[in-house]
Amino acid sequence: MVAENYKEVQKKIDETCSACGRDKDEVTLIAVSKTKPVSMLMEAYEAGARVFGENKVQEILEKYDQMPADVKWHMIGHLQRNKVKYIIDKVSMIHSVDSLRLAQTIEQEAAKKNIVMPVLIEVNVAGEESKYGLAPEEVDSFVEEVSAYEHIRVCGLMTIAPFVENPEENRDIFRQLKKLSVDIDAKKHNNITMSVLSMGMTGDYLTAVSEGATMVRVGTGIFGERNYLR
Ligand SMILES: *Cc1c(COP(=O)(O)O)cnc(C)c1O
After folding, report:
1. Which one, of 90, 89, 9, lies nearest residue 49 by Cα?
2. Does ligand 1 have an atom closer than 6 angstroms to the CB of 217?
3. Cα–Cα distance, 166 to 171 (Å, whole number)
4. Are 174 and 209 in contact (CB under 8 A)?
5. 3-state SS assignment for residue 156
6. Are 84 and 119 in contact (CB under 8 A)?
7. How many CA atoms lie within 13 A of 18 on its CB side?
8. How far apart are CA 88 and CA 94, in angstroms?
9. Nearest CA to ligand 1 atom 13
10. Which of 181, 177, 178, 170 lies closest to 207, judged by CA?
11. Nearest CA residue ID for atom 11, ligand 1
12. CB 65 within 8 A of CB 23
């Protein structure tokens, strides 16, 4: 089932791109494989998936060794500072930078390995109390601060939209994130680009694509429901 699902999701993304005049190569489908076994990740891999999203450091470490070397791992979940060192040379992007202290730790650990870590700033657009992320009005000064860090490259913004029944309810959230990225881009901070917009999950990824997402994070739609009691 996983291979069919993956291809179907990719096809819908491609169709939505052509319907709204976007090039399909502008959008990267991230297969969110948290809680799922490597055998299922391999099914997605065989269907063409090369970018996998995980939200736990331990899980990335376990799967990293078992999956082919051309897989790109994206850390999409809340990241504790004391765990940065374990994944700094294993992930190709961290989507969830939400504090200066975390950014400082990433800077230090990346410097030790002599790499530049691509990151996204997580923004809590809807202002939900249960969620991590900066308030939209905090992002510009945050970006200004991080632009001085030599081992971090801010590539754009990420948001986790509220859980809704009807994806249309999140359209305005996606518009707000897009507008914020355009506004910040216009300030031309040193060393910062706003080329990545990571938004949209199983319930609303097509709405996100139509509002400018360049990365969508789809878990359930590819791998099925997650069972956290496993
Ligand atoms: C789990 C998760 C997803 C995927 O959610 P689905 O609704 O299963 O597609 C996307 N983004 C983040 C940050 C997640 O933690």
Report:
1. 9
2. yes
3. 10
4. no
5. strand
6. no
7. 5
8. 9
9. 76
10. 170
11. 217
12. no
In angstroms, the CA 94 to CA 85 distance is: 13
User: Which residues have C-beta within 8 Å of that of residue 187, sequence separation ≥ 6?
Assistant: 140
Q: Ligand 1 pocket, 34 CB below 6 A? A: yes
Q: 109-132 pLDDT, tens per residue?
A: 999 999 999 999 999 999 999 899
- Work out the percent of the chain whose per-residue pLDDT is above 70: 99
Separation between Cα atoms, residue 122 and residue 94, nearest integer Å: 10
How many whole angstroms separate alpha carbon 36 and alpha carbon 33?
A: 5
Q: How far apart are CA 45 and CA 5, in angstroms?
A: 12
Full-model pTM: 0.97
Residue nearest to ligand 1 atom 6, measured at CA: 219
Report whether pLDDT(137) > 70.
Answer: yes
Tell me, using a 6 A CB cutoff, whether residue 201 lines ligand 1. yes
Q: Which residue has a Cα nearest atom 12 of ligand 1?
A: 76
In angstroms, the CA 44 to CA 2 distance is: 6
* Interval 20-71: pLDDT, tens: 999 999 999 999 999 999 999 999 999 999 999 999 999 999 999 999 999 9
